[in-house]
Write a structure and sequence with these properties.
elongated; 6-stranded antiparallel β-sheet; 9% helix; 82 strands; mainly beta; disordered N terminus
C-alpha cells in the first residue's frame, strides 16, 4: 500500500514538473520593438528572411486607403535555448482620420517626399500610401530622403487634400533595434473571454473551434525581385484597386524596374498593365486627385525619361505627356480637381489647369514648400497663389499671383517688406511670417487676410523657437521653446485673431526629427472635439496628461483596475498612473503608436505602461471606450489593430517574425476576441490595406509565402461574419464625461454605438449620430485672458508685468473695444447664460488718451538703404484711438508727410533718397491729449565698386608713413575701414580712409585694407618694404604711354616688371636690390628704389651709402643715355628717363626730427642755385653739364643731373668704345655682353637729349 501510494505521488509530481516546464517554454516570450520610418503614406516592402535583417513597423488603424507594415521573420526561425520565441512588439500607427502625434514643423524636407508642411496643413504630393521595409540588411533609402511628416496634418487634424498622398521611407536597422530592444517577463497570455492567446500560429486550441473567413489569394507573377509597392483603392463605391510595385536599387538610389497592376473585383484578381503604359517605361510615383479619385497620374523615372501618364477612368487607359522639367512635388487644388501646382528641382513653380496635360511657368526662385492655393471666401480670387520667393541670401518676399498671369503688374505684396526665408505659412484664416527687426526674428500674423500685426506672447517669454501646431476652430495653438528650455516646449493658445497668447501646458516633451524638424508629444483624439493627450516632463519624469476642454484643465490618466489576467492593479495617483507612447520618440521615421477614429468616438487604442513614468519596457496595449476615463489592458504582446465596419468592430493581427494564418476579431470593443484563419498556408505579412469603401467589409493582406516567392495578395471578405444590417435596436447610447462631469465645454454630448457582440453591418450615415444640449456657464467654461494667470483657487488675476488698464488694439481701428474681466470663454465652448455675463468682456468706448507704443522700422528690418531706391517705412501704434491720432513721418532730408489716422499707412510709407548719408527719421503720433515719438537713424549708401590702397613701396624703418585709400565712387556714404598688417588676426578699425603707421622690422610687410559699406565689402592689398637706408628716383616715360595707360593695377605691375628687367639687363645691378613701382594716375610715372644688399656689408654707414650712391650713378647714367627702354607693342618703343618730379609726400613729417634726406635735398638745391648763378655770370662751360637758356625756344627746358657715359668693352679686344659711337640695342639679338657696374668708366661726353 505504501509502495502504491509512493508510486502515485511520483507520477503526480513528474506530471506537475513536466507541465511546469512546458508552460515555461511556451509562455515565456521575448519581444523587441523595431521602428520603421514612415511618411504620411507608408510603403509596403518585401521583408528580409534573416531575423538579423528584420524591420518591424509600427501599426495601427488603417483608414480607407491606409497600409500598415509588418515584419516577418525567417521561415526557419526556432525558439532560442531559453525556450523563448522571438516576437515583435508592434507599435500602433495612427490612421488618417485620427490625429497622431503632432509634428509642427518639417524644415528642409525634400519636396519629393509628399509631406504636410508642418505649419500650413497642406500636402505637397497626392498619391497612395506606401510602406517601406528592407530587402537587404541595410534599410531602403527612399526618394523622399527620409523626410517625413508625422501627422496627417501639421495641426493634428485630417485634411481632405491629403487623400492619395505618397511617401517613401528609410530605416536604420541597427539603430532601431538598439533603441527599442527589450525583454518582457514571461507571461502566459490567457485568452480573453475564456480563450487563450496563441503563442504560435500552429498551436491548437482544444476549447476553440477554428473559424474560417472568406478569402482569395492572387500572386503578382514576375515581381519576385520587387521590394516596394504602392496601392490605391478609391473606395467611392468602386471595386478598382491599383498597385505599383517597384525594385529600388539601394546602390544607385533609384527605381530600376516597375510593374502596374489593376483589379476590378476588390482584389480577387489583378491585370498587369505594363504593356498599356509601355514595356520600357519605369514608373516611380502614383498620384490620385483628392477631388476625383478616378483621375490617376503616374510619374516616370526622370533618369530615363521625364513624362506623365494620365488616366481619367481609374487606370483603365493612359495618355502619355512629356515634361520639360523634373517634378519634385505636387500640390492639388482643394476644390478644382484639374488644378495642380508642380515644383521643380530648379526652384521653379508650374501650374496646370488640365490635370497635367499642359503646364505653364508661374514663377522662379520659389522657396521649397512655401506655395499655397488661395481659399474661397478669404482671398479675392479663387485662382490665386500665395508664394514665398527668394530675393537674396537671407531675404525672401511674400507675394500673391494670379493663376496664369504672374507678371509684375499682377503681383500682390500683402506684406510690404522682406521676410525671413522659409517662414511663410498660409493656413486656414491665418497667414504667418517672420520679419527681421533689429537683428531679431519677430513673428507676424494676418487674420482673414487683413493687415499684419506682431504675435503678442506673455511678457518675458523669450522664444528660441516657435512652431504653429493648429489653427482649428478659429484659434491658433503654438509650441514655443523658451530661453531656458532644451528638450521641451510650452503650448500657448490664442484668441480668434491669433494676436494674444496664453499658456496652455508647460514642458511638453519634444524630439528632433530628420532635417531639423520638431515633433511635439501632443495628440488630438479623433471624433470628440477638445480632447487631447500630451506627455509632460515633471521632475525629470515623463507623464501622460489628458484634457477634455482643449487645454484649460489637465489630469493624469487612470490606470486599469485589473491586468489582462484579472489581477488587481494597485496604482494610486499622483505616484502611479497610465502613461502612453504618443509617438516613437527615438525614431522620427515611425508613425504614432496611438489610434482613434471619427467613426468610433470614445475608442482610443495605444501602447503604454502603468507606473510612475513613461518607459519603453514591458509595453502593453490599452484601450478605452469612454474617451480616456477608464482603460483596459487588451494585449501584453504586440498586435496590429484595425477598425472594421465603420469602427464597429476591431481586427487584430499578431506582430511576429513568423508566418501567420490567423487573425482575431472583436465585436465588443476589445473585451473578447474570436480567432479566424484567413489563408491555408502561413504568410509572412508585409502590410494591410483596410476597408476603403462606403459599405464594403474587405481587407487585403500583402505578403510572401517564402523569401523567394512573389507578392501574395490575400483578399478577405468579412461579409460572412456579419448577420444583418444594423437597425436602431442594435445601438445603445453613451454620454461623454470627465470623471463624472457631463458638462464639457459647455455641452452635454451623447453618442450612439453598437451594443456588445452585435454583428450587424453599419452604413455610412449611422455612426454620426450625436445628441447635444448646452449647459449654463460656470467659471470652468472660461480660461484666463492675456496678461492674467490662474491661481490655485481657480481665479484669474493679473500677472505682475501686466497693466489691466491698457486698452485693446481695437481702438487703433475703431472707437470701441472689449474690456477684459480677466477671463475669456473658449472659442469651442457653447455654454449659455449662467455666469456668462459675469466673466465675459464688456464693450466700452475707447478712451481718449495720448498715443503710446509707436514703432518705426524699415520693411527690410535693417538700418541701411540703397541710394535712388524706394525705402518702405512701417509704422505701428500699440495703443491710441486711431481715428483721432494723426501720424507724421519726417524723412530727415527736408521732406515730411502727414496722415490723418493710422489706417492710412497700412501698406507702409515709401520714400527715395537722392544723396548718401545718415538720415535722422522720426515718426510722431499725436492727438489732443499728447503725442508719442520714435526715432530711426538710416544709413543711405550706394554700391561701392572699388577701393585702392596708396602707400610707398619702400619706407624707412621706424619712421611713420601715411596710408591712404581711394574709393570709386568717392561718395558712398558711411564707410568702415579695416586695416590688417602682416599676419595679425585683429584689424585696426577706422572711419577715415587714411592712417599713419610705423614699421619697426626690416623686410617686406603686407598691408590689407577693407572698406565696408552696407552689405558690400571691397578689399585691396600691397606690399611695403622697410629698410634702414635706400635711394630712390622718380622716372618718366615717353608721353604717348599715357594714351595707352588703362589705369588698372595689373597693367602697372607689368610695366614695373618690364622696366626692372631692362635696368638689370643694362646695368648688371642685382635684381634683388632694385624695386620699380609704377604710380597710379596721369602722367604715367614710376619710382625706382635702390635697396641695400641682403648680406650685411662690411664697413660703416658711410661705406654703405657710398655703395648705394655708386649704384645710383650707374642707373642714372643708363637712364640719361636712353638705354632703359621696352617695347609696348610692335612698333611702339617706350623710353624711360629720370625726372625731378616728386610724388605726393607719403612720409609723415610730424616728427620733430629732421630727415637726413630732406637736409641733403635742401643743400643740393642751394648748391645748384649757386652753380647756376656762376654759370650765367661767367658763362663758363662745365664738363658734363648742358645749360639751356631762353635762346632755345624750340625745346622745353629740362634739367639733367650729372651723369656718366657707359663704355662697353669690345668682345674681340680690350679697346673701349664710347656710347656716342656705338649703337646700343636693348634687345637680346644686338646685345652680346651686359656690363656690370665694375666695368663702368666716367666720360666727359654730354648725353643725347631728345
Amino acid at each position: 500500500m505504501e509502495r502504491r501510494l509512493g508510486h502515485y505521488l511520483f507520477l503526480f509530481f513528474s506530471k506537475w514538473i513536466w507541465l511546469f516546464t512546458l508552460t515555461s517554454i511556451l509562455g515565456g516570450t521575448k519581444g523587441e520593438i523595431r521602428c520603421i520610418p514612415s511618411c504620411q503614406l507608408p510603403l509596403i516592402t518585401e521583408f528580409p528572411r534573416d531575423l538579423s535583417e528584420l524591420d518591424f513597423t509600427n501599426f495601427g488603424e488603417a483608414s480607407a486607403e491606409e497600409l500598415v507594415g509588418f515584419t516577418e521573420g525567417s521561415p526557419g526561425a526556432k525558439p532560442n535555448a531559453g525556450g523563448e520565441e522571438k516576437h515583435t512588439v508592434a507599435e500602433l500607427t495612427a490612421s488618417e482620420e485620427s490625429s497622431s502625434k503632432v509634428q509642427p514643423h518639417s524644415e528642409g524636407n525634400k519636396s519629393s517626399c509628399p509631406q504636410k508642411d508642418a505649419l500650413n496643413d497642406q500636402p505637397k504630393l497626392s498619391h497612395p500610401k506606401e510602406f517601406t521595409g528592407s530587402a537587404s540588411p541595410a534599410a531602403a533609402p527612399s526618394p523622399c530622403n527620409g523626410n517625413v511628416t508625422e501627422n496627417s496634418t501639421g495641426d493634428g487634424k485630417h485634411n481632405e487634400e491629403n487623400d492619395g498622398e505618397h511617401v517613401d521611407v528609410t530605416v536604420n536597422e541597427e539603430n532601431d533595434v538598439a533603441s527599442w530592444r527589450r525583454t518582457r517577463s514571461a507571461r502566459s497570455a490567457e485568452a480573453w473571454s475564456g480563450f487563450r492567446a496563441e503563442d504560435g500560429e500552429d498551436v491548437s486550441f482544444s476549447d476553440l473551434e477554428e473559424l474560417e473567413l472568406t478569402s482569395s489569394t492572387f500572386a503578382l507573377a514576375g515581381d519576385t525581385a520587387h521590394n516596394q509597392a504602392m496601392v490605391h483603392w478609391s473606395g467611392q463605391n468602386s471595386s478598382v484597386i491599383l498597385m505599383l510595385t517597384k525594385y529600388y536599387d539601394f546602390n544607385s538610389g533609384r527605381v530600376t524596374e516597375s510593374s502596374l497592376w489593376r483589379s476590378t473585383d476588390y482584389g480577387s484578381t489583378y491585370e498587369k498593365l505594363n504593356e498599356k503604359v509601355g514595356l520600357k517605361t519605369i514608373l516611380s510615383y502614383l498620384y490620385v486627385s483628392p477631388n476625383n479619385k478616378r483621375k490617376i497620374m503616374l510619374l516616370t523615372d526622370p533618369e530615363v525619361e521625364s513624362s506623365l501618364l494620365i488616366s481619367l477612368d481609374e487606370g483603365a487607359t493612359y495618355q502619355k505627356h512629356s515634361l520639360a522639367f523634373d517634378i519634385l512635388s505636387l500640390l492639388f487644388h482643394p476644390e478644382q480637381e484639374d488644378w495642380i501646382l508642380a515644383y521643380s528641382h530648379d526652384q521653379k513653380l508650374y501650374v496646370s489647369v488640365e490635370f497635367g496635360r499642359r503646364w505653364q511657368l508661374v514663377h522662379d526662385s520659389v522657396v521649397p514648400n512655401r506655395f499655397y492655393w488661395s481659399r474661397l471666401g478669404l482671398d479675392k480670387e479663387q485662382g490665386m497663389i500665395h508664394l514665398e520667393i527668394i530675393i537674396s541670401d537671407g531675404r525672401s518676399q511674400y507675394i500673391t499671383c494670379k493663376l496664369q498671369n504672374c507678371s509684375d503688374g499682377n503681383k500682390g505684396k500683402p506684406f510690404p517688406g522682406f521676410i525671413i526665408p522659409n517662414s511663410l505659412v498660409v493656413q486656414d484664416e491665418y497667414v504667418f511670417i517672420q520679419v527681421p527687426v533689429g537683428g531679431q526674428s519677430v513673428h507676424y500674423v494676418s487674420y482673414k487676410r487683413n493687415a499684419f500685426y506682431p504675435m503678442t506672447l506673455p511678457k518675458y517669454t523669450l522664444p528660441k523657437d516657435l512652431q504653429i501646431i493648429s489653427t482649428d476652430d478659429n484659434q491658433v495653438v503654438t509650441a514655443i521653446q523658451d530661453w531656458h528650455q532644451n528638450d521641451s516646449y510650452n503650448l500657448y493658445m490664442s484668441e480668434s485673431r491669433g494676436l494674444f497668447f496664453t499658456l496652455m501646458l508647460e514642458n511638453v516633451v519634444s524630439s528632433g526629427g530628420p532635417e531639423g524638424n520638431i515633433m511635439i508629444d501632443l495628440y488630438e483624439v479623433a471624433g470628440i472635439k477638445g480632447v487631447f493627450l500630451s506627455n509632460k516632463v515633471e521632475e525629470n519624469q515623463v507623464k501622460t496628461y489628458i484634457t477634455y476642454n482643449k487645454g484649460r484643465d489637465w489630469r493624469l490618466l487612470q490606470a486599469p483596475t485589473t491586468d489582462l489576467q484579472g489581477n488587481k492593479v494597485y496604482c494610486e495617483q499622483p505616484y502611479c498612473s497610465l502613461h502612453l507612447h504618443l509617438h516613437v520618440s527615438e525614431n522620427p521615421y515611425t508613425s504614432g503608436n496611438i489610434v482613434s477614429k471619427d467613426s468610433a468616438p470614445g475608442i482610443i487604442i495605444a501602447s503604454g505602461v502603468v507606473g510612475p513614468e513613461l518607459t519603453s519596457n514591458n509595453v502593453s496595449i490599452f484601450i478605452t471606450s469612454d474617451a480616456g476615463n477608464s482603460w483596459r489592458e487588451v494585449f501584453q504582446e504586440e498586435y496590429s489593430l484595425f477598425f472594421l465596419n465603420q469602427g464597429g468592430s476591431l481586427v487584430a493581427i499578431r506582430h511576429t517574425p513568423l508566418p501567420i494564418r490567423h487573425i482575431w476579431l472583436s465585436f465588443d470593443e476589445g473585451r473578447s476576441w474570436d480567432k479566424y484563419s484567413f489563408t491555408s498556408s502561413p504568410l509572412y505579412v508585409d502590410g494591410v490595406l483596410g476597408e476603403p469603401g462606403e459599405d464594403t467589409l474587405i481587407m487585403t493582406i500583402f505578403g510572401h509565402f517564402s523569401h523567394r516567392s512573389e507578392w501574395q495578395l490575400v483578399k478577405i471578405d468579412f461579409q460572412s461574419v456579419f448577420q444583418h444590417r444594423c437597425t436602431s435596436e442594435d445601438y445603445m447610447t453613451w454620454q461623454l464625461h470627465n470623471e463624472g462631469e457631463v458638462c464639457i465645454m459647455g455641452m452635454k454630448r451623447i453618442f450612439q454605438k453598437l451594443k456588445a457582440n452585435v454583428r450587424c453591418v453599419k452604413t455610412r450615415n449611422q455612426y454620426i449620430s450625436q445628441m447635444s444640449d448646452s449647459c449654463p456657464c460656470t467659471q470652468a467654461d472660461f480660461e484666463c485672458d492675456y496678461g492674467f494667470e490662474r491661481q490655485i483657487d481657480g481665479r484669474c488675476t493679473p500677472a505682475f508685468w501686466f497693466v489691466p488698464s491698457a486698452t485693446s488694439r481695437d481702438c487703433i481701428r475703431g472707437e470701441s473695444f472689449l474690456n477684459t474681466t480677466g477671463y475669456r470663454r473658449g472659442l469651442s465652448n457653447n455654454c449659455t447664460e449662467g455666469t456668462l455675463l459675469k466673466y465675459s468682456p464688456r464693450r466700452q468706448k475707447c478712451p481718449s488718451h495720448a498715443p503710446r507704443g509707436l514703432q518705426l522700422f524699415t520693411s527690410e528690418g535693417t538700418l541701411v538703404a540703397a541710394l535712388e531706391r524706394n525705402v518702405t517705412f512701417l509704422v505701428f501704434l500699440e495703443e491710441g484711438l486711431g481715428s483721432m491720432t494723426s501720424i507724421t513721418v519726417d524723412f530727415g532730408d527736408g521732406t515730411a508727410i502727414s496722415y490723418v489716422n493710422i489706417s492710412s499707412i497700412d501698406g507702409g510709407v515709401k520714400h527715395i533718397y537722392s544723396r548718401v548719408g545718415i538720415y535722422h527719421i522720426s515718426a510722431t503720433a499725436s492727438n489732443s491729449l499728447g503725442f508719442d515719438r520714435v526715432l530711426l537713424f538710416l544709413h543711405v549708401t550706394c554700391q561701392l565698386e572699388q577701393i585702392q590702397l596708396l602707400a610707398p613701396s619702400v619706407v624707412v624703418k621706424n619712421k611713420a608713413i601715411n596710408l591712404t585709400t581711394v574709393l570709386r565712387p568717392s561718395n558712398v556714404g558711411t564707410v568702415s575701414y579695416y586695416w590688417w598688417f602682416n599676419n595679425k588676426t585683429e584689424p585696426v578699425v577706422t572711419l577715415d580712409g587714411t592712417m599713419s603707421f610705423t614699421f619697426s622690422k626690416e623686410g617686406r610687410h603686407t598691408v590689407t585694407v577693407q572698406a565696408s559699406v552696407g552689405n558690400t565689402v571691397r578689399q585691396d592689398q600691397m606690399t611695403v618694404a622697410a629698410y634702414d637706408y635706400f635711394r630712390s628716383h622718380i622716372l618718366g616715360f615717353s608721353s604717348y604711354l599715357d594714351e595707352l595707360n588703362p589705369g588698372v593695377s595689373e597693367w602697372r605691375e607689368d610695366i614695373s616688371r618690364v622696366v626692372k628687367n631692362s635696368m638689370v639687363q643694362v646695368t648688371g645691378i642685382n635684381e634683388e636690390q632694385l624695386l620699380v613701382t609704377v604710380l597710379p594716375g596721369l602722367p604715367t610715372t614710376a619710382e625706382i628704389f635702390i635697396l641695400p644688399e641682403k648680406r650685411p656689408r662690411v664697413g660703416g654707414m658711410a661705406e654703405k651709402w657710398a655703395h648705394l650712391d655708386q649704384l645710383s650713378q650707374v642707373l642714372l647714367s643708363a637712364l640719361n643715355q636712353d638705354l632703359i627702354q621696352f617695347t609696348l607693342k610692335p612698333g611702339v618703343q617706350v623710353n624711360v628717363y629720370a625726372t625731378q618730379l616728386s610724388p605726393a609726400p607719403l612720409v609723415d613729417s610730424s616728427d620733430s626730427g629732421h630727415s637726413s634726406t630732406a637736409v641733403i635735398m635742401l643743400v643740393s638745391v642751394v648748391l645748384m642755385g649757386l652753380a647756376a648763378f656762376l654759370i650765367y655770370k661767367f658763362k663758363r662751360k662745365i664738363p658734363g653739364i648742358n645749360t639751356y637758356t631762353a635762346e632755345q625756344p624750340d625745346k622745353e627746358q629740362e634739367v639733367i643731373p650729372t651723369v656718366t657715359s657707359i663704355a662697353i668693352p669690345n668682345p674681340e679686344g680690350d679697346q673701349l668704345t664710347s656710347l656716342d659711337r656705338v649703337d646700343v640695342q636693348l634687345d637680346s639679338k644686338g646685345r652680346g655682353y651686359l656690363p656690370s657696374h665694375t666695368d663702368i668708366k666716367l666720360s666727359d661726353e654730354a648725353p643725347h637729349v631728345f
